[in-house]
Structures are given as structure tokens and as C-alpha cells.
Design brief:
Length: 451
């Protein structure tokens, strides 16, 4: 005779997993709609600039349009849901600590339409930030249909966030690992919650792939590199560790600088950043946008070292000011493009002065994507897996692992801390909340608060 308690537990598991599946399906569809909307805006904006022809007119029109769109995105966020600014990952972590508000309807409106305005104007921001936050808010809306325990609620929020990341990059495994490494302080590890994250990630990526028909978004064809060159990639990792620490500190500094502007004038940075973006869209388009399309072009075409370093600086500064302007947008995609530029510069120099094949350029670009991510976010395994799923360059799994490891070690010893931990502490401080002071009991502590 069946145990009644066992049957009840199985039904409860099935109901919870059904919620996770629904989250995955809805988030996949929502993210695809968001991406499709952005592609439409990009195409229309590009066609308009082309139709205006050469001369000053496209500059004037681009400056006005981008400035108005970015300012509109900023005002929409401020009026509807201020917590929708930026990527939203720190907001999700704060909500899982019961210290940030959860207003799914308002955040979804501000994030979706504000994200279309901001990213469509050409800002150096990624689409993954909005989809992650919208994914968590979709999960929050679904969780309210039936009471859940605190752990189940937090688990479903994490599942929604993972589904958003999986849909953004068609990278379900990286999305699952992101929850494990990034939210290790907040995520209630358990059978139900962990399986919910996996289910939501798989279904979200499946919906996105079915609707868009894409494989690896940044497919790179590259061969194996010699083992002796791993030492060069370790040096690259050390350099990226320093770059990651600099990036985190610079981002917080620019955000704090903008915060000193009187409240009634805080739309001015958004207007200014939008106007500069309008100029760059015509003068140097590679310095604008999230960079998803740019990464492949950089690897395929042979840029010189000076051009790559200039592009690194422009995109580095671009993401700092774009993110700090207070509009929706993520930093993952821009970080990948910055890393590609820096990695290619290192690779070009290596090919020129050392006995390595030309393919080593591409290997450095791919490895740098993971290394810079690992140095800033301090999630090295996510960096490795995300790059593999994005590029399909599985022949480089060892080189990428070497670079991510040395980048994480360098960032730690340089005093760097995970960017989303810093952003969460800043958000809580501004809201008058104290950050969580409980010791991190997870076995892996990568630059956490007490270290």
C-alpha cells in the first residue's frame, strides 16, 4: 500500500515543478519578444541613418533621437519602478534576502519598454540584464497564484532569473551555474529549488531556440592551441584580473558621481549619454551597442593593436556611463566585447613576437571573454561555460579554464570583490538597509564580504 505522505509529497513536487516549467516557457517567450523588438529597432534606426546620406544631417538626427530615447527610458524607470534601473541582478539578490521590494507588474513594464528605448538608442548595454530581471518578476507573479514557503518562493525567483539568462544567450547550463556561483549566499539549495532552476533554464532556452532558430550566438571556429601557450593565457588572465578590478571600481565611482547631481537634474546624464551615443553611431559605430554582433566581426577581421586598444577604451567608458545613467540594461554583453578587444590585442602581439599560429588570436579572444567575466563577477565556472555555450569553441575549454582561474586569483589578490555584491551593498545602503552580515557558509568563497 502506498504511503499517503509520499503521494502527497510527489503531488507537491509536481505542482512546484509545473510552476517552474511555466516560468521557463513564459520567460523564453517574453525574452524572445524583447530581443525581436530590439532587432527591429536596430534595423529601423540603421536604415534611417543610411537614408539620410552623408553629411551633418544623420549626426543631428541621431543625437536628437538617442538623447530623447535614453532620457525617456530614464524618466519611465523613475516614474514607474526605480528598481528597474541597471541589470536588476542585485535587486533579485536583495529580494531573496527580503530587503528589496517585489513589484512584478511595474518592473515588467519599466524594464521591457525602458529597455527597448535605452538599448535601441545604441547604448553600450546588454539585453541580458532586462531579461534576467523580467524573468524573476515573471516568477514572482506566478508564485502569487498559490502560497509557497519562503525557500520555495526564493527558489522560484532564482529559476526565473536563470530562465532570463538562458534565453538571453541560449546558455542554459551557464544560467544554472550562475545561480550556484553568484547567488550562493541567497539561494536556498534543496531538491525542489535546484530542480526548478534546471527545469526553467532548459525550457526557456528551448523556447528561444525554437522561436529564433539560432545555435551558439557567437559561433567561433578555432582549433586546439599548444599546451605550452597556456602560460601565455595565464598571463592574459592576470592582466584581465586587473582590468576586472578596475572595471568594478570605475563603475561604482561613476554611479556615485552621477548620484551627486541634484535630484531635479538627474535626467541630464541620460540626455548627455544619449547625445554622445548618437554621435558615435555615425562616427564610430563599433563603440556603440551591446556588442553581440561586434564580437564575431572582431575575431574574423584582422584589426591592428592600436585599433583594438582604442575600441577597448571606448567600450569600457561607454558601458560605465551607459549603466550609470539609470536606464535598464546589463553589463554581461558589453564585458564580452571589451574582453574580446583586449584579448585580441594580446593575441595579435603574441602572434607578431612569439612563435604561435594566427589561430592564437581567436583563442585569446575567447579566453578573454571568460577571464574578464570571472574577474568582475567572480564566477569562474560560469565564465568558462558561458563562453563555451556562446562560441561553441569547446576545443578551448582548457585554455579558457586557465584564463578564468588566473583572472579570478589576480582579482582576489588585488582586493577586488564581485560586482553584483558591490552593487547590492550600494543599493541597500542608499535604501537605508544594512547588508547581510552573516558569514558565508558556502564552501567556495570568491571575494565575498568577509574576505
Amino acid at each position: 500500500m502506498a504511503d499517503p505522505s509520499s503521494s502527497s509529497s510527489a503531488r507537491s513536487d509536481a505542482a512546484y515543478f509545473l510552476k517552474a516549467a511555466l516560468v521557463g516557457l513564459l520567460v523564453g517567450a517574453l525574452a524572445t519578444g524583447f530581443h525581436t523588438g530590439l532587432e527591429f529597432l536596430f534595423a529601423q534606426y540603421s536604415s534611417l541613418r543610411t537614408a539620410l546620406g552623408p553629411g551633418l544631417l544623420p549626426y543631428v538626427v541621431s543625437v536628437v533621437m538617442s538623447a530623447l530615447c535614453v532620457t525617456g527610458a530614464f524618466l519611465l524607470v523613475q516614474r514607474v519602478a526605480p528598481e528597474a534601473a541597471g541589470s536588476g541582478i542585485q535587486e533579485i539578490e536583495g529580494a531573496m534576502e527580503d530587503k528589496r521590494p517585489l513589484r512584478p507588474a511595474l518592473v515588467l513594464i519599466a524594464k521591457f519598454f525602458g529597455g527597448l528605448l535605452a538599448l535601441g538608442s545604441g547604448l553600450v548595454l546588454g539585453r541580458e540584464g532586462p531579461t534576467i530581471h523580467m524573468g524573476a518578476m515573471t516568477a514572482e507573479a506566478i508564485s502569487r497564484s498559490r502560497p509557497l514557503t519562503s525557500d520555495e518562493h526564493k527558489g522560484l525567483l532564482a529559476a526565473g532569473a536563470a530562465a532570463g539568462l538562458a534565453a538571453a544567450f541560449n546558455a542554459p547550463l551557464a544560467a544554472i551555474l550562475f545561480i550556484v556561483e553568484e547567488t550562493r549566499r541567497q539561494f536556498p539549495f534543496g531538491y525542489r529549488t535546484y530542480m526548478a532552476v534546471i527545469i526553467a533554464s532548459i525550457l526557456s532556452a528551448a523556447v528561444t531556440e525554437q522561436l529564433t532558430g539560432i545555435g551558439p550566438p557567437l559561433l567561433v571556429e578555432v582549433d586546439y592551441v599548444p599546451v605550452w601557450s597556456f602560460s601565455l593565457l595565464a598571463v592574459l588572465g592576470i592582466l584581465l584580473g586587473g582590468l576586472g578590478v578596475l572595471f568594478n571600481k570605475a563603475l561604482i565611482t561613476v554611479m556615485d558621481l552621477f548620484l551627486k547631481i541634484p535630484r531635479r537634474l538627474r535626467w541630464v546624464p541620460a540626455l548627455s549619454v544619449g547625445a554622445v551615443t548618437g554621435v558615435l553611431l555615425n562616427a564610430f559605430p563599433d563603440a556603440t551597442g551591446g556588442g553581440e554582433d561586434l564580437v564575431h566581426d572582431l575575431i574574423v577581421n584582422h584589426y591592428g593593436i592600436l585599433a583594438l586598444l582604442l575600441l577597448t577604451v571606448l567600450r569600457f567608458g561607454g558601458v560605465l556611463f551607459s549603466y550609470a545613467s539609470g536606464v535598464p540594461g546589463g553589463i554581461f554583453a558589453p564585458m564580452l566585447s571589451i574582453a574580446t578587444c583586449a584579448g585580441l590585442a594580446f593575441g595579435v602581439a603574441s602572434v607578431e613576437f612569439l612563435p604561435v599560429d594566427d589561430d592564437f588570436r581567436a583563442a585569446c579572444a575567447v579566453a578573454a571573454m571568460g577571464g574578464f567575466f570571472a574577474a568582475s563577477v567572480r564566477a569562474p565556472l560560469v565564465g568558462v561555460v558561458l563562453v563555451m555555450e556562446l562560441t561553441g569553441a569547446y576545443a578551448l575549454i582548457m585554455p579558457v579554464l586557465v584564463t578564468c582561474t588566473t583572472a579570478s586569483l589576480a582579482a582576489h589578490h588585488l582586493g577586488g570583490r564581485p560586482i553584483y555584491e558591490e552593487l547590492l551593498e550600494r543599493t541597500l545602503r542608499l535604501a537605508g538597509e544594512l547588508p547581510d552580515q552573516t558569514p558565508d557558509k558556502t564552501p567556495v568563497q570568491l571575494g565575498t564580504r568577509e574576505s
